[in-house]
Specification:
The complex is a heterodimer of chains A (about 160) and B (about 800). With about 160 residues, chain A is an alpha+beta fold. Chain A is built from 5 helices and 5 strands; from the N terminus they run ββαβββαααα. In chain A, strands 2-1-5-3-4 form a 5-stranded mixed β-sheet, sandwiched between helices. The chains are: A alpha+beta (about 160), B alpha+beta (about 800).
């Protein structure tokens, strides 16, 4: 038994017949072919699979593809505009906010949600905001600096939502 | 293309010096855009998925395995059990020791299962979901057997054996002894002793393991993508496991999402998945679930330590004795028995200790194997040493910093030979201690501590002065070669390809190695492309672990570059009509002494390839390889200071300040070095405060999910304040030492020292990790209910009974 879904992924509609139990993360990776969204635990505890669903961060390993039917999903691949990196991506690069890079797409998408709602977060607010996303490499210190860097860039541009809505 | 990594660092077109610069990483653009490829991101035509049926029992006889139901599920291609895989494997262990018992370690459990999570059958299907469904349909009849998870019980007379054939759970014994230990303890004014548990940890790389294999019978070519730290060693072992000539096997470690030692291994799955692709004629992929990662990827630490220190009244150390039980788990993985030996070696710490004896017993239990986890034996040693130093200072009524200073070797004594037989390359322990004290405001922290007592506030200050053994290492001291390879090839268009055998998994070698080669050739790091992880492209190498990549692999690249420079100078001298010794390379040119004659870098490179005008005997092309064999390990060191407040009512520990002054020799990219320290501290702090892999008496890993196993989250950690001293290593020409594990090695002891220091006025002398509120609260209660809580500065009575070993 399959169901028909249409999910708008990074501004393009993706249609597929899927098993009702198919997770959104597997839809993105296997059906849409976007492997930037990573599977780290399949229990919504590590955050590596974080994407935006209608603009809000969700852990795509605990969302069914069916639940995203007719909705908009933004993955890390959808942030840069052509050659121009999103300010959050720039922040992570400039401040060495990543090492192995596996948690990074989820961390960036989570930060995106955070900065949408708290454009000028304090260090403590950033640490609270990303505490559902695990990183084993950085000790989070440079991730905090990276998000602050991005927050400055985004306020300067007055475009806190650039790249994804 | 996004902006290049070097854009910011360029200085008005002038040639820059790249080593020492905070260069943005070359690997980041692909990672931050989600367009790089980890093993699970590859999809090959006709690819099948596999999943494992694993034992729910820690110890059981396998009576029967029925695979009919699994095979009947639509979409299932095949199911295999140990009956099918007898010719495959076994899972290798690289260690040989005189009395080491090495059980056969089958890729699929044969006859018996010996830990919960051991693979029993493998299911292959057209898609992942079907494979996992079918794995649950594999029916296994088990006859449960008595389980042993406690090391002391495992060594007692009343224990089941993990491996019946050995009639013992003692896997090995190892003694390191030097100096007159008995005399040292006889003449001691004081003996301080402490039993300390170093709990079992889960490495928890964010990317679980993954293996993809494709076998092409026509070409007799097996290609294996694996999330590994050691692609070349894995290639050799896969060829042995599956029975193909090594020349037919190619291993690719693509993007690797963290390792921390857990991927410095050869796992059964890395044998089975290639075997499946050969058997079925289709590419096969396995992606480990997090639950499997907890149960069946190696664990770290898990030792019981009885440590004693013999002292003179004035604080001079006379001797150290330790008896260590090391839980190896049920089987040996690649380096399982090696890790406790590294612990033994590092028990001199950064102190002058005239006599030492370390006795280690490796113990089999019904648990997952332990093996290298970030620090691999050294954090255990540093924890024992740094805790016992604090205990000693406390007993003698000395400030822990004064006590340490009294026992450090002086800078002029280096290279310093330790009582454990190591030669420490270079160090200034006094300098890093002084700097850390200043940076942390140590004196002010001590003043606040004292005033806190009046208002019922309990502040603690922890110190850890550490030394670690890195750049592993000279081949004579390692089981599988301690050298590393580097190949530098200047392409005809003057772009440089660097092939390194050190296979990174987040360390940023594509950037740092490009920096060092760029400096040597006087070119831009953006023109140096660092290739790693593909055994068909890269000459044989050892891999990235043991804080060795830069000190050994970077040096190999450096040495290969020197060979090329000599060759280029020969050609330039020929073309310019001067002597090779008069040629210098820099700023994109090769220039003769005096500066009048020169040739552009690109022009010289082209001349080496067109080869129309070359000196007699000159070999065309520009490629050089160097296999660098280090003459010694390197010994990075430093001092960390931690300030905490402990809430007596709840047992909660608040880490208020964390200062780290590390010395890893010369620094290639300070931003990346700081990043390594940050992550290391977080992991060490994780052990001190939160992390614990707990097996119950039935051998079930009760902390087997991320809900139960607490790795540090962002809001739990303080901001770290870093500084460094620079004491170049004489062991390699770049003077680098290595930094990957430093933070982990220092921080665990530092945090525990701080918490015990806070509670010392109550009479608390030690609390075992992790310092969960419950455990701290219980320690406070126990101390407060004892008849005579010790005063903060009053030395305790001499330990009379301490002359006999505990």
């Amino acid at each position: 038994m399959t169901k028909s879904v249409t999910i708008n992924v990074n501004r393009a509609d993706r249609h597929a017949e899927v098993e009702p139990r198919l997770l959104l993360v597997h839809f993105l990776r296997e059906v849409a072919g976007l492997t930037g969204t990573h599977v780290g635990c399949e229990t919504s505890l590590c955050g590596a699979c974080t994407v935006l669903l209608d603009g809000r961060a969700v852990k795509s390993c605990t969302v069914l593809a069916l639940q995203a039917d007719g909705r908009k999903v933004t993955t890390v691949e959808g942030l840069a505009q052509g050659d121009a990196l999103h300010p959050i991506q720039q922040g992570f690069w400039e401040e060495h906010g990543l090492q192995c890079g596996f948690c990074t797409p989820g961390m960036i998408m989570c930060s995106h949600d955070l900065l949408q709602h708290h454009p000028n977060p304090t260090d403590a607010e950033i640490r609270e905001g990303i505490n559902g996303n695990l990183c084993r490499c950085t000790g989070y210190q440079n991730i905090v600096v990276a998000v602050k860097n991005a927050s400055r860039k985004m306020s300067r541009r007055g475009a806190a939502g650039a790249g994804a809505r | 293309m996004p902006a290049r990594a070097t854009d910011k660092a360029k200085t008005n077109g002038k040639s820059a010096h790249w080593v020492g610069k905070k260069l943005k990483r070359k690997e980041d653009p692909r990672l931050i855009q989600g367009i790089s490829h980890y093993t699970d991101d590859f999809k090959l035509a006709g690819m099948l998925s596999c999943a494992f049926a694993r034992s729910p029992h820690a110890h059981a006889e396998i009576i029967a395995v029925r695979t009919d139901a699994a095979k009947a599920l639509p979409g299932v291609v095949a199911v295999f059990t140990s009956a099918d895989t007898m010719a495959l494997g076994p899972v290798p262990c690289a260690m040989q020791m005189p009395d080491l018992k090495t059980p056969r370690h089958p890729v699929l459990a044969t006859g018996r299962v010996r830990y919960a999570g051991e693979p029993v059958a493998v299911v292959v299907a057209h898609d992942l979901y079907t494979a996992r469904d079918a794995a649950e349909l594999v029916q296994v009849d088990y006859q449960p057997l008595p389980v042993v998870t406690n090391m002391e019980k495992a060594l007692s007379g009343d224990t089941p054996y993990v491996h019946e054939e050995f009639k013992s759970n003692k896997a090995f014994t190892h003694t390191l002894k030097n100096g007159d230990v008995d005399a040292a303890f006889k003449k001691a004014d004081r003996i301080v002793k402490q039993r300390m548990l170093n709990q079992r940890l889960v490495p928890m790389a964010m990317e679980p393991r993954a293996v993809l294999a494709e076998y092409l019978p026509g070409e007799n070519r097996l290609t294996v993508w694996s999330s590994t730290q050691i692609p070349h060693l894995l290639k050799t072992q896969i060829s042995v496991m599956v029975g193909l000539p090594e020349t037919a096997v190619r291993v690719i470690a693509p993007e690797v999402g963290g390792g921390f030692g857990s991927k410095l291994n050869v796992y059964g799955e890395e044998g089975i998945v290639p075997w499946l692709s050969m058997k079925l004629g289709k590419p096969v992929k396995w992606a480990e679930t997090r639950r499997e990662n907890f149960a069946a990827t190696i664990h770290g630490r898990d030792t019981i330590n009885d440590v004693e220190l013999a002292l003179k009244k004035d604080g001079t150390i006379l001797g150290l004795r330790a008896r260590i039980l090391a839980d190896l788990g049920a089987y040996h993985q690649l380096l399982t028995p090696l890790i406790p030996q590294l612990t033994a070696l590092m028990h001199a710490g950064c102190y002058k200790i005239p006599a030492i004896q370390i006795d280690i017993v490796g113990v089999f239990t019904n648990k997952m194997s332990t093996d290298a986890y970030r620090g691999a034996g050294r954090p255990e040693a540093t924890y024992n040493v740094e805790r016992i130093m604090d205990r000693a200072a406390q007993e003698l009524g000395l400030d822990p910093t004064a006590f340490r200073l009294k026992n450090f070797p002086q800078p002029k004594e280096f290279p310093y030979t330790t009582i454990t037989g190591l030669t420490y390359d270079s160090a200034k322990y006094q300098e890093s201690l002084a700097r850390a004290l200043k940076l942390s405001g140590y004196d002010a922290l001590r003043r606040r501590q004292k005033s806190g007592w009046k208002s019922g506030k309990y502040y603690g200050i922890g110190i850890a002065t550490y030394v670690e053994i890195c750049a592993i290492g000279p081949s004579a001291a390692t089981p599988a070669g301690g050298w590393e390879s580097g190949t530098v090839r200047i392409e005809p268009t003057a772009k440089v390809t660097l092939l390194t055998g050190a296979s990174p998994h987040g360390q940023g070698e594509e950037t740092t190695f490009a920096q060092l080669v760029a400096d040597e050739l006087g070119i831009d790091p953006d023109d140096v492309n660092v290739i790693h992880g593909d055994t068909l492209a890269v000459p044989y190498g050892i891999g990235t672990f043991g804080s060795r990549a830069t000190a050994v692999g970077g040096t190999a690249a450096y040495m290969a570059t020197q060979k090329l420079k000599a060759k280029m100078a020969t050609l330039a001298a020929h073309l310019l009509g001067v002597k090779p010794a008069d040629i210098t390379i820099g700023r994109g040119r090769l220039s003769a002494k005096g500066g009048k004659k020169s040739i552009a870098f690109g022009e010289l490179v082209m001349a080496a390839y067109t080869a129309r005008n070359i000196p007699p005997g000159f070999e065309p092309g520009l490629e050089a390889t160097h296999f660098f064999e280090p003459s010694n390990f390197t010994f990075p060191f430093g001092c960390h200071v931690c300030a905490v407040e402990v809430d007596l009512e709840t047992g909660e520990v608040k880490i208020e300040k964390y200062v780290a002054v590390d010395d890893c020799g010369n620094v290639i990219n300070p931003m990346l070095v700081d990043g390594q320290i940050h992550g290391g501290i977080a992991q060490g702090m994780g052990q001190a405060m939160w992390e614990e892999a707990i097996y119950n008496d039935d051998g079930q890993l009760v902390t087997g999910t991320l809900m139960d196993y607490a790795i540090p989250k962002a809001h739990l950690l303080p901001e770290f304040t870093l500084d460094r001293t620079v004491t170049p290593s004489p062991v390699n020409p770049m003077g680098v030492k290595g930094v990957g594990e430093a933070g982990t090695i220092a921080s665990t002891a530092c945090v525990v020292n701080a918490v015990v220091d806070a509670l010392a006025p109550l009479g608390v002398r030690h609390i075992d990790m992790p310092l969960k509120p419950e455990r701290v609260w219980n320690a406070i209660q126990a101390a407060q209910s004892s008849p005579a809580p010790g005063a903060p500065k009053k030395p305790a009575a001499k330990v009379v009974s301490g002359r006999r070993r505990a």
